[in-house]
Amino acid sequence: MEGGKYLLHFFLLALLATKAAADLPQSNANANRKSYIVYMGDRLDDDASTSLLHTSMLQDAFGSESKSVLCSYKKSFNGFVVDLNEEEAQKMAGMDGVVSVFPNGKRKLHTTKSWDFMGFPQQVERAAMENDVIIGVFDTGIWPESLSFDDKGIAPPPTKWKGSCQVDPSLNFTCNNKIIGAKYYRSDGMFFPSDLVSPRDSDGHGTHTASTAAGNSVNGVSLFGFGSGTARGGVPSARIAVYKICWADGCQDADILAAFDDAISDGVDIISISVGGGATDGYFEDPISIAAFHAMKNGVLTISSAGNDGPGRSTISNFSPWSISVAASTIDRKFSTMVRLGDNTIYEGISINAFDLKNKTYPMIYGRDALNTTSGYTSRSSSYCTQDSLDQDLVKGKIVLCDTLRGSGRGPVLAGAVGMVTRSKDKTDFTNLFPLPTSSFNLVDGGMIYQYINLTSTPTATIFKSAEVNDTFAPYVVSFSSRGPNPITPDIIKPDLSAPGVYILAAWSPINPVSQIEGDNRFETFNIISGTSMSCPHVSGAAAYVKSFHPTWSPAAIQSALMTTASPMSPSINLEAEFAYGSGHLNPLQAAHPGLLYDANEADYITFLCRQGYAARFLQLLTKDNSTSCLGSTNGTVSDLNYPSFGLSISPSKTFSRSFKRTVTNVGSPLAIYRAELSFPTGGVKVRVDPNVLLFTSVGQKLSFEVVIEGTLDESLVSGSLVWDDGEHKVRSPIVVFI
Ligand SMILES: *[C@@H]1O[C@H](CO)[C@@H](O)[C@H](O)[C@H]1NC(C)=O
Ligand SMILES: *[C@@H]1O[C@H](CO)[C@@H](O)[C@H](O)[C@H]1NC(C)=O
Ligand SMILES: *[C@@H]1O[C@H](CO)[C@@H](O)[C@H](O)[C@H]1NC(C)=O
Ligand SMILES: *[C@@H]1O[C@H](CO)[C@@H](O)[C@H](O)[C@H]1NC(C)=O
Ligand SMILES: *[C@@H]1O[C@H](CO)[C@@H](O)[C@H](O)[C@H]1NC(C)=O
Ligand SMILES: *[C@@H]1O[C@H](CO)[C@@H](O)[C@H](O)[C@H]1NC(C)=O
Ligand SMILES: *[C@@H]1O[C@H](CO)[C@@H](O)[C@H](O)[C@H]1NC(C)=O
């Protein structure tokens, strides 16, 4: 696997990479060393002997030549980090006990109306257990002074909590009864000037995701009047444990693994990780997939973001069957920003613009015509308003037209522009916050504005403050949300479900400006941002809500409850259908009462991995059980994993027939009769379920059935569903057949 770069799954972090590049690292000494992760499966019983094992392996492989273990994982799984060249890495990969060896790459990070929008009002029924649930938030840290994390009236942490808090007096960081633990991870010690070497969040992303999952209710908040209302997390009584793994330049594999190793043994119940990117060539070459497997083994559910690389096919970045992958969809809030040109025509664009130019007009210029000829850039760059390409003398005091939708506004703001109008062919279904008055257009209206500039001797314009309007089509999956199918097992539908991830208002670090652009001096304690990073913690909060009612449910059971109760979404708006939204739109309230569960345990995932082609010898390292074998697994396919959805990838124009074996567990009324309702567009494909009635006589009872899909497919994708209905619960699974 190539060491990819993990980034947080939200938009503005792309800018952070630029910020980091602009800042020189404090230490460059380590820049050329290449560290690798040597992953060795499940933990050994004895931590001390694990450390010895790691050193002796290096001795065996490389003799007395001193190679040191940079970081050891031994609490929850087994592995270590070491500097190697490619040849040495191959040698290690061939050693006994080694599951995989891969470079320590970087990943990227991929309010509060959103809960009400999902039909989850503030006054829902709550379980007393809610304050025992611990959500581990893997992100950029936290801003503990935020009102979202005030611990007034909150009891001390539950006794199962074994984690710790990295208190630091110089940055005044402490935990409390809401934030019960916090640690930072940066094994190579390379910090950037904008990084705070503390769990304290200098960015805002981690503060935002933590408050979305489990923040208190805070009344009367808004961003300059936008999104005004109560900001709250899904489980305001639950506890937050902070694992800071992301820094100005992204999130390193070694640190992601170290944080999981701790979190699992610290006693967290749910892990929320809005991070991804990097390789897709195997479940055990991806640190999040590896770590989520061990989390599952230990009863901990991992919720991850699908990524922001959509809408292309198979752009999804977290897709292991033992974790949940979350797409991002809209809520009924959007922003409209009017621009009035000098000829009094008015165009309606989008942006979150809180600046008020008070109807005053300013001269306009097209970026292409404002090239700084000594900057080394071409007019193509200046048409995009790239940073440093614009001539300050030409742009100062003007509104500049730029050929970009997702530009940051940094170029115009540094050149002294008063405002920015953008045009692009990108889908205008979401927008950012900019450091100057901005409105964004598609090529139609943007083209008219261009023509006005082109044909007018002294073009002028003004930009109005945005208006918040109802998006009556919501919810639909936003264009940036990464799409399936699953690149490794296409028959396991990914993403699993969708949740609000556009224009989410939540807590923020008041040392990073709201637009995240230097020079913007608007520092606020709440901010509106977008990304699958924002949808992920909605599902984490909902998972914690389910857990608070059903503390003994397995990770797969909670996943099943969230997926089978999701509200169906429309393939007429999202043509990629389930590959955009999975089982549908999160419905937290219903998820606590699913009726039936599609449960799975470690052995089921091992059988799945056998069928996926992994060797028994390899899987024994994961289970630490020499009796693990793949014998008998050939009686089924990967489709027989007891997953709460049905995916079938087939070759074009060939006749196919596939059966799916499933077992459901009754968690509703003891006496229940469930009838199967199959809905599938007729055509070349036939679907049947056998038996089509399930008669339960007790809670916890398990009954099995089989779904058979056969025929030929003319279209590239057909979707339908199987709903088990007892008159009280509708247990829904999507069925997707695709080429
Ligand atoms: C340090 O944190 C405490 C607790 O949050 C707060 O009361 C105090 O004002 C902070 N001090 C400074 C100097 O920020
Ligand atoms: C803004 O100015 C224009 C032109 O002077 C005028 O027609 C319009 O009514 C003004 N709009 C507002 C909202 O004041
Ligand atoms: C043009 O770019 C050069 C090099 O970056 C810079 O020094 C100069 O100030 C810029 N001039 C204007 C007018 O923006
Ligand atoms: C208007 O567009 C034409 C054709 O693209 C170009 O040649 C001309 O320079 C433009 N005029 C101005 C004022 O931008
Ligand atoms: C937005 O419009 C939808 C559909 O017309 C409606 O159901 C919803 O209540 C509206 N939301 C708000 C906040 O007005
Ligand atoms: C499992 O097999 C390995 C390698 O053959 C051996 O070293 C180990 O002792 C065995 N473990 C158990 C518990 O039998
Ligand atoms: C396949 O065989 C194994 C071992 O004999 C058995 O436990 C399992 O239930 C079978 N699976 C299916 C799908 O028939």
From TrEMBL:
Name of this protein: Cucumisin
Note the SUPFAM superfamilies from the entry: Subtilisin-like (SSF52743)
Q: Which Pfam families match?
A: fn3_6 (PF17766), Inhibitor_I9 (PF05922), Peptidase_S8 (PF00082)
One Gene Ontology molecular-function label: serine-type endopeptidase activity
Instruction: Name the residues annotated as catalytic in the UniProt entry.
Output: 139 (charge relay system), 205 (charge relay system), 533 (charge relay system)
Annotated Inhibitor I9 domain residues = 35-110
Q: Which family does it belong to?
A: Belongs to the peptidase S8 family.
Q: Which residues form the Subtilisin-like protease fibronectin type-III domain?
A: 640-737
Signal peptide bounds: 1-22
Q: Biological process GO terms, please?
A: proteolysis
Question: What keywords is this UniProt entry annotated with?
Answer: Hydrolase, Protease, Serine protease, Signal
